[in-house]
Amino acid sequence: MEMKELVKQGIQEALDRAVKAGTLPQGEYPEVVLEVPPQKKFGDFATNIAMQSARIAHTSPQLIARAIVDQMDYPWLDKAEIAGAGFINFFLNHMVIYDTLRQILSAGEQYGQAELREDDTVQVEYVSANPTGPLHVGHGRGAAYGSALVNLLRKAGYHVQAEYYINDAGNQMDNLAASVNARYLELLGYPSEIPENGYHGHDIVETAQAIIDQDGDAYLSMAEPERLAYFKDRAYAEKLKALRQDLAAFNVHYDNWFSERTLHPDAIRAACDELKKRGKAYEKDGALWLKSTDYGDDKDRVIIRDNGVPTYLAADIAYHKNKYERGFKKMINIWGADHHGYVARVKASMAALGYDPAQLEVLLLQMVSLFRDGKPVKMSKRTGQAITLNELIEEVGTDAARYFFIMRSLDTQLDFDLDLAKSHSNENPVYYIQYAHARIYSIYKQIEEAGGTIPEEWSDVVWDTLKEPQELELIKKMAAFPEEIQIAARERAPHRIAHFAHELASLFHNFYNHCHVIQPDKDLEKARLALVTAVRITIAGCLAILGVSAPEKM
Hints:
The protein has helices spanning 3-20, 49-52, 54-57, 61-69, 94-107, 137-155, 171-187, 202-215, 224-249, 266-277, 312-325, 343-352, 389-396, 398-406, 418-422, 429-449, 469-479, 481-490, 495-514, 522-546, and strands spanning 34-35, 45-47, 77-83, 87-92, 117-125, 158-166, 256-259, 281-284, 287-290, 301-304, 330-336, 360-365, 368-372, 375-377, 414-417. It has 554 residues and is α/β, with parallel strands linked by helices. Among the domains are: 3-92, Arginyl tRNA synthetase N-terminal domain (Gyrase A, domain 2); 171-239, no CATH class; 429-546, Isoleucyl-tRNA Synthetase, Domain 1 (Orthogonal Bundle). The strands form 4 sheets. It has a 5-stranded parallel beta sheet with strand order 7-6-5-11-12, with helices on one face. A 4-stranded antiparallel beta sheet has the order 1-2-4-3. The radius of gyration is 29 Å and the shape is flat. The model has no long low-confidence stretch (mean pLDDT 95).
């Protein structure tokens, strides 16, 4: 049993015994909540259960606290003190603290992994950028956050599917084809202009040039509609392939790629027919409208235009209907902050179809601003366009980019310091964490070079040789990792794991500077080896959730 759970259970049992003994009256007492005190002098854990129970017990918190403490005779508890208005502070026996090390060393890389709950099905859909060009820095934040959230939820025991919704239908694909066509003609010496809503990126020129390099001017003789159809398919396949490759290089992988094209026309028609059948859609001025005002929207929304062409909302209704039909208990969409007003419409459409809109959770990512030399960076030096994710990776590396994207809550604007992300210093948080991991391997190497060996099992460790404050603080921090995973998963907050890893690395570096692992006393040396091995396992577990590598040397 984890240390915190052990204490919570002990308090609950003591409370029950006090009630049974008649010291406290019968009643529905609140759940025991534990916190880690801000100062070590207040113990390992503290609870305000006595204050929370005053109304139930009809007596003072101090008397309630005394009744609980009098029932807490446990071998793992050194002492319990009543403080202030009725707080109870708990000081644990070191032997129960050492149990954490045994658990970590026994579990290995599975430490913190909750048992898979097959019924807790979650789908996370993220990035879902149009396949019309390279991913940019804004997409990078969504990619890093989304994939870290998937890793986190899986570590917390949820059954998760990661999905990419490919926006491969509609006007943007026609504009892609027209843009490639314009560049193709231009490169062959024929005057041509990019359409008003076309794509101006250098990658469009590269696509057109690749067509010329392969087939020359063979498509000039083709009727324009046929040429556009060919260029659409060719560019789409190329852009989607590049998009997959860019995401894989960023440690982002999906279980399912869902094509919007598969919704046209049948699934969209079926969703619209269902809305009409339910009286939630009506025809007006030749168009079909969703009664979104029934669900708090400021106006009803067109889902089929008067020319018979579905709107984006119609496709999204069919897509989300498909998600519900696949039976997920929770569906999480990660969208850009500019989609804020769109959330209510999609939820309204699901409610109109008879689904529970609370099952659909939409998380909004705020903007990313890049800084170099303290100044904002907006454009690529190479192309004059927005900076791509690939360019960012080339400059700072995948690990730094992922960590910097994840280390702030998604609902706050992120200022990304390029100089800090590249620096090999303790001020760079990802370097600081990875250096802690690599430092442990350097300890192993020193021991092996001195003729020693790294133990494969730890059953004969003399644990009570670990008495230094730096050692005990490390162990207590690692003991909190499983609960931190559960809290971060519930809050959809992978940045909590980034902060946890940094705090653990800080405690390790402090330990390293005060406590030498290699010792004449071999019992102490082995105990400290066990300790740093547990730290290595826990740091690696944090970095795995974040999608960041755990290097053996730096």
